[in-house]
Amino acid sequence: MSVRHALLALLSEGPKYGLQLREEFEARTGEVWPLNVGQVYTTLQRLERDGLVESDGDGQEGPQKEGPQKGFRITAAGTRELTGWLRTPPDMSSPPRDELVMKILVALRVPGTDVAEVIQVHRRYLVELMQQWTRIKENESESDMGLALVVDAELFRLDSVIRWLDAADGRIKRAGALTAKSAEDAPNLNPRTPGALPSVRRRVGVRK
């Protein structure tokens, strides 16, 4: 997630110092995304460099000019940046490089690998995760809106991955059955019959 914009959102409520920003970030996100204080200050330095925040050290003197109590506040440019980010959809035009998807694709090519068993191992793990998140939802999230939204998002995400694994398992099994049937029927095919013609991969968007 964008820590940069999350910090701008917190600063839009009023001036804050670094440690306060880290504590509020973790509290607002249901404490499921721990944030290193070093990352907070590194991000604040970059925001200040880009003119999106100002600190107590900008033309001021005093004991809070440096150190953990150094205050930061959002600038007009920072407010515009935050507003634009909130209203700009993330780039989801290409599928992410998902490790689980790649594992299944690789398993298909590794000799002697039972792909169905690989799928079931991961499916069981995801079901266990869903059960853990469900318990959190039942016990803690009702009183914490941020945590409730995070838990809902995670449950929907895990459910979609499980459904993809089920679909992949079915597709792979059907393909295996068709391959086995083709191997049985191959000796009986006449090379000149339509059944023996080589398959042609469809190319989307290509015109002759």
Based on the model shown, name its key terms.
mainly alpha, three-stranded antiparallel sheet, 4% strand, disordered C terminus, single chain, 7 helices, 208 residues
Write structural notes for this entry.
The structure is a single chain. This protein is mostly helical. Helix content is 57%, strand content 4%. Strands 1-3-2 form a three-stranded antiparallel beta sheet. Helix 2 packs across helix 3 and helix 6 packs antiparallel against helix 7. The C terminus is likely disordered.
Apparent shape = elongated
Order of helices and strands: HEHHEEHHHH
- Helical stretch tally: 7
Summarize model confidence as the mean pLDDT. 83
Distance between the termini: 44 Å
Quick one: biggest sheet? 3 strands, antiparallel
> Which parts are unreliable, with pLDDT below 50 for 5 consecutive residues or more?
59-65, 191-208
- The percent range for strand residues is under 5%
The proportion of residues forming helix, as a percent range, comes to: 55-70%
- Using the CA coordinates, give the radius of gyration: 27 Å
Query: What is the spatial order of strands in the main beta sheet?
Result: 1-3-2
| Total number of strands | 3
Q: Pairing-aware structural class of the strands and helices? A: mainly alpha
List the quaternary state of the chains.
single chain
